[in-house]
Amino acid sequence: MSRASRRLRALPIRSRLALLVAAAVAFAVAAVSVTCWFIVRGKLYDELDNDLRSTVRGGVPYAAINEATHPCTTTVDDTSDGFDPHPNSTYYQIVQSNGTVCLFPSSAGKVTVTSDDKDVAKSPTYGQGILRNGTDNKGSSVRILTVPLQVSAPGGPQAVQDAALMVAVPLKNTDSTLNELALLLLLVSGIGALGAGAAGLAVARAGLRPVDRLAEAVEHVARTEDLSIRIPVEDESVDEVARLSRSFNSMTSSLASSRELQQQLIADAGHELRTPLTSLRTNIDLLTRSEETGRPIPPDDRKALMASVKAQMTELSSLIGDLQELSRSDSGPNGDKTVHVVALEDTVEAALRRARLRGPELTITADLQPWYVMAEPTALERAVVNILDNAVKFSPEGGTIDVVLADGVLTVRDHGPGIPAEDLPHVFDRFWRSPTARALPGSGLGLSIVARTVEQAGGQVTLGRADGGGTVATVLLPGAPEPPPELPTASGATRAE
């Protein structure tokens, strides 16, 4: 990277935009000015050339040629009195093929001869002749037309052998006009560049004002961690800055919502952990005091106390496991888990085996049809186990639980007391427990885990009252009755076409 590039990158973006706009406009003005100068120059030279051609059109009278060539027997001496510049502004002279120059008495001076002029003198059929810039004997710039010499005659112009006519006009006025035009265009270009720089700076300030507001908002969030700030955006704005502002507002809204959920989770978790921890501390204090005072606890009370400690430890371990599961789910779609093609009927079968162990007095019927979904196997099995545990928990002794899997819809129906209608909107909330179930074991996170797992798999889960009493849980998961070809299943096997 060049030093100029590094310096440009070191400037604020507002200054860079102003410089770029000024440079672009200056380049455009310079290009237009140069083009204009060359066009005007071409037009002026065309006028001079037309005047020169009109001068020699029709040939030169014999008398004029005799007047010019009569004393012209040798090469003319520039310092001789016969060739002093005439006050007239046009140069007339005849050049012979050997380089001899003969001036007309009315010529304003002598024009320097080149080899091209001699070539025209040698070729009477040289056509329209040649046009060029040259100098006179004083060093002044002139525009020269050299054509084969012709004399006017009654039958039309006749060519003269080994001679050419040179006609020239001075370029002083033309060059002066072009120089004045160049100075004027240079002045206009400079004013245009300065104006472009000022306009570019104004445009940059106006265009970057929303960016300044965005930067101030970001700095405010970084300094105060206040996520309630929003950047005003017009509804009809569709430019990049508006999109960036909307994205920032959406990001801060998401962060604020996430922070609220996190704070709520911490508060709820602290509340739920307080109960088992308090019970554990009370029981351990009793055991410690018994040891310190030497007063043994009666065997039955000690047995009940140890059972309570064990139950509280189990509840505490379950709660911590549920919190870990929720934290992994909150890390994003599918978190860091590996998604496989999962045979849903096999997952339900594994969950049913665990449910039968937890409710041996219950009758659990199952009608499962093949269905394959894309999900994380362990999380999906835990979700199904949570649904079945909920059914086992609320089923009466000797009751029946019906499990059906058909066309990707899993239904679990129990015959318990059912869920009150006013509690249905809250069943999937974290740590929410029905007033009638608070005496039962559980952390209030099971159905939250179910809802999060099913949503990550692209499905839906609902819980409602069943006809005839009880509760029915419905899980709808997208999939197919057969696994996709050449895709690994949860067991690691592949299916070929």
Protein model, in words:
The protein is α+β, with helices and mostly antiparallel strands. It folds into four domains: 1-57 and 173-226, no CATH class; 58-170, no CATH class; 240-329, Helix Hairpins, CATH 1.10.287; 340-476, Heat Shock Protein 90. 50% of the residues lie in helices and 15% in strands. It has a five-stranded antiparallel sheet, sandwiched between helices. Strands 7-9-10-12-11 form a five-stranded mixed sheet. A two-stranded antiparallel sheet has the order 6-8. A hairpin with a 2-residue loop joins strand 9 (400-406) and strand 10. The protein starts with a helix and ends in a 21-residue tail after the last strand. Residues 73-87, 330-336 and 491-497 have low confidence and may be disordered.
Topology, please?
Elements: H1 3-10, H2 13-56, H3 62-69, E1 91-96, E2 101-103, H4 115-122, E3 130-135, E4 141-151, E5 158-170, H5 172-224, H6 240-293, H7 299-329, E6 340-343, H8 344-358, E7 363-368, E8 372-375, H9 377-394, E9 400-406, E10 409-413, H10 446-456, E11 460-465, E12 471-476
Parallel strand pairs: 7-9
Antiparallel strand pairs: 1-2, 1-5, 3-4, 4-5, 6-8, 9-10, 10-12, 11-12
Structure, briefly:
The protein has 497 residues and is α+β, with helices and mostly antiparallel strands. It has helices at residues 3-10, 13-56, 62-69, 115-122, 172-224, 240-293, 299-329, 344-358, 377-394, 446-456; strands at 91-96, 101-103, 130-135, 141-151, 158-170, 340-343, 363-368, 372-375, 400-406, 409-413, 460-465, 471-476.
